[in-house]
Amino acid sequence: MVRAVPGWLRVGAWVFVALAAVFMLAPLVVVMGVSVSASQFIAFPPNGFSFRWYERALGSPAYLNAFWLSLNLAVLVTISASLLGGAAAIGLSRGGRSGGAVETFFLSPLVLPSIIFAIGLLMLWSAVFGPTSFQALWLAHTVIAIPYVIRTTLAVLAERDPFLEEAARTMGATRLKRLWFVTLPQCRPGLLAGAFFAFNISFDEAVLSLFLRNPNLTTLPVQIYGQLEFSPDPTVAAVSTLMILITIALMLILERMLGLTRFASG
Amino acid sequence: MTDRRETWLFLLPGLALLVLGFVLPITRMLVLSVQGPDGFTTDQFARFFQDGFYPSILWRTVYLSAIITAVCAVIGFPLSYIMARSGPRVRLWLVIMVILPLMTSVVVRTFGWMVLLGRNGLIASTLRDFDLVGRSFQLMHTETAILLGMVQVLLPFMVLSLLGVIVRLDPRLEEAARTMGCSFLQTMRMVVLPLAAPGLLAGSILVFTLSASSFVTPALLGGPRIEVLAGSIYKNVTQTLDWNFAAAQAVILFAGIALLLVPYLRLGRRAHG
Amino acid sequence: MTATARLALTATLCAFAAPALAQEITINSFGGAYEEAHRKCVIDPFTAETGAKVNIVTAYSADAFAQLRAQKDAPQYDVIHFSGGQEIVGASEGLLLPVTEEMVPSLADLYDFAKAGVANGEGPAYQIAAVGLVVAADKVPSEPTKWADLMKPEYAEHLVLTNITNGYGMIGLLMLNQIAGGSGDDIQPGLDAVSQLLDAGAVVVSTSPEIQAEFAQNDAWIAPYASDYAFTLKKAGLDVKFIQGEEGTPASFITANLVAGRDNVELASKFIDKSLSPDAQACFSEALRYTPTNSKTVLTDEVAADVVYGADAAKGLMRFDPRVIEANRSAWTEAFAKTIAR
């Protein structure tokens, strides 16, 4: 008979989860509080109650344009980074001895502070293509997002059953069929986590976006940063609160439509 | 088509992008580290090591990253296990909880910490009410503040890396261990932990490299008196406009992290590759 | 012929060869209330007069300069505004185009000190921010009157200093250095003063929003900083006051610069001319309390009471030699970092 999980551990688990929740969410509660403050400066606890910062954020074309640009960019980066990173991870998991060096190479964008990459890319891009463009930003974000996809996908592939593919091969499945029916399902949870990171990295990235921008290319984090010097009012907190709410809504919708958690469990 | 050729076909697009989109641009910047007014020079590196100041910043960067990684692992492993073994609804809400900090702008999120950790913040004023600390006490602008702020944003990378691996572990393995007389904790240590190692490895590499190369959170929470190397690099690029020295610092940071990571990756490959 | 002169000539020729090729220019502004004022005082009137479109990139001086230097092969700005002395480095690296009175007629009306750098290829100053003591009037027990008061022990735990990576922080340090007996060749007395203040409980921050947070959140009393930010805090509802220290009020210049290698120099020059015009300057003073640099600017009494105004008063502003600052910036920043490091 299997002995049940000891009672103190169950209680302990819930206490642990509760503490983790406080730690993760306390600063966000502060931000949400600030966003409904009536006063013009960022302070907590909020003085009075007002929705005017939301009106301001939602009524400002600058914030809305920045939001759509960031969203477009993040979606495209998710697609390109998942494709390239996923393929590279599959290649790496099959690779022989040289795999280690190649793997380290693929991780290198994570190691270098992004400011160095940003300035280097801006210098090169200006010399070769002239003014920066959406493509430059897409390229830059894809480069820094790929390592996440590779890492998370490799992690799940390390636990895969190599005989499945072998079995498919003996039974005469073509390369494409093996990829589609065997390898990809094996990658799925890792690829999903990687895609999620890619989206996030792009959406939250400020340094590359700061230096590669032009008048038509201001992402949301850059827009927020640009308001801080002369108008540090609760609008930025309202924008962040909206982002929190959108994230929750999006997660719930995805769960309902796709069964996100089942998807993640492969 | 041989298998070998197929493997390269998978790797090639990513490699090409990395070489053209990353290696070329950073080379353009990093060569500045050895360029002086009269050609090749190692002056910038000599400047880094001329006294203990910059090496101490490098050392702080490395040990803070190591502590952040360790804390993320210690919190992340049990959390991912609980997530993996709970129902879909609970798991969804826990995933949401873990990723929410990532979805707020870094400056705004940091402000949340400033309120909690500042001189008049919740923690300091509570301690002051009990007369435990003086007026100037604050957690802001300390290494602890950097640690808290960084763990909060980097935990999702650890948890999601682990979750992908743990959810795929067959619960029957654990049952088997339990049947054979292992206690719950023994099962954890001898069955779950070793099998989750690739996820732990992936998560810690992401967390470690991210904490070593990020500067916004450390700069705001640590303040100018506690610098990390990435912050110093940023300062040299934008404020003192000393790009040669910035490039040299980047080379040193890059080499330092790579030296630490290569054995770690090799370890991972030997155990599970 | 020097390189800059040659550049100027080529650019002028280009300007004649292709008159107003593109009826739009790109500039940087500093976001938030500053950008609103910029639009109202300069950009909108400029568009109304010339029909040209102005594209704005919100970029603070340091970031904008890094961008300008990296984009040397394909600059995107026509006019670039700096508040931290970046124009000196920019001019010496050939990134900027010198302006002349033919291109920018309003230069003639500028106070001499505001166009002192023009001969070196730097852009003229269109605004001056005065650096003094920003004081929380409702909290401080007794108001400071001079810079030396910063050293009073009773203020120390409520004092906010600024890192010298920030332009105003640099000026604040040089002022502390001066009252401590230092000079442009020797900032050690200033560093010692900073170190003494930090030991006594002062905090040091790097950015303007952090200064706001210290006043709004952490019971700060005094911060050496600029008049424009004091006014921004006041408008946000904080009870702060800007006090000019008795030892003098150092000035920080905001300059408008022409960028080299662009093809609509003529339009860009007009834009700078507009920034220097008395109307635009009066409007900016009213919005953010900057000191005007055009001698013909007329301010209302209400605004004039808040700003350093008029030829004599403006001349009374001190200025630390920007060339000395630029020559030492890297070394000083490193020395400062070492001084404050824990």
Automatic annotation (TrEMBL), chain A:
Q: Name one GO biological process term.
A: transmembrane transport
**Record InterPro entries:** MetI-like, MetI-like_sf
Q: Per its UniProt record, what Gene3D superfamilies does this chain match?
A: MetI-like
> Which keywords accompany this UniProt record?
Cell inner membrane, Cell membrane, Membrane, Transmembrane, Transmembrane helix, Transport
Keyword Glycosyltransferase assigned to the entry: answer is no
Top-rank taxon of the source lineage equals Bacteria
Q: Where is the ABC transmembrane type-1 domain?
A: 67-254
Q: Report the principal subcellular site.
A: membrane
Q: Where in the cell is it found?
A: Cell inner membrane; Cell membrane
Q: In what way does this protein cross or attach to the membrane?
A: Multi-pass membrane protein
Cellular component per GO, a single term: plasma membrane
Q: Which residues cross the membrane?
A: 12-42, 62-92, 104-125, 137-158, 179-203, 235-254
Write out the similarity annotation: Belongs to the binding-protein-dependent transport system permease family.
* Protein name listed in UniProt: ABC transporter permease
UniProtKB/TrEMBL annotation, chain B:
A Pfam family this chain is assigned to:
BPD_transp_1
Per the UniProt record, the source organism is Aquibium carbonis
Which residue numbers delimit the ABC transmembrane type-1 domain? 58-264
> Any one cellular component term from GO for this entry?
plasma membrane
Show the stretches that span the lipid bilayer. Answer: 57-80, 92-116, 145-169, 190-212, 245-265
The family assignment reads: Belongs to the binding-protein-dependent transport system permease family. CysTW subfamily.
Task: State the name under which the record lists this protein.
Answer: ABC transporter permease
Quote the InterPro entries the UniProt record gives.
MetI-like, MetI-like_sf
SUPFAM superfamilies with a match to the protein in the record = MetI-like (SSF161098)
Q: Which UniProt keywords apply?
A: Cell membrane, Membrane, Transmembrane, Transmembrane helix, Transport
Q: Where in the cell is it found?
A: Cell membrane
Q: What's the protein's topology in the membrane?
A: Multi-pass membrane protein
One Gene Ontology BP term is: transmembrane transport
The record's listing under PANTHER family reads: ABC TRANSPORTER PERMEASE PROTEIN, INNER MEMBRANE ABC TRANSPORTER PERMEASE PROTEIN YDCU-RELATED-RELATED
UniProtKB/TrEMBL annotation, chain C:
Does the keyword Cell membrane feature in the UniProt annotation? no
Keywords of the record: Periplasm, Signal
Q: Which GO terms describe its molecular function?
A: thiamine binding; thiamine pyrophosphate binding
Question: InterPro entries recorded for this chain?
Answer: SBP
Q: Which terms does the UniProt entry file under GO BP?
A: thiamine transport
GO CC aspect terms: outer membrane-bounded periplasmic space
UniProt keyword rRNA processing present: no
Q: Which PANTHER family match?
A: ABC TRANSPORTER SUBSTRATE-BINDING PROTEIN, THIAMINE-BINDING PERIPLASMIC PROTEIN-RELATED
- State the name under which the record lists this protein: ABC transporter substrate-binding protein
Specify the species. Answer: Aquibium carbonis
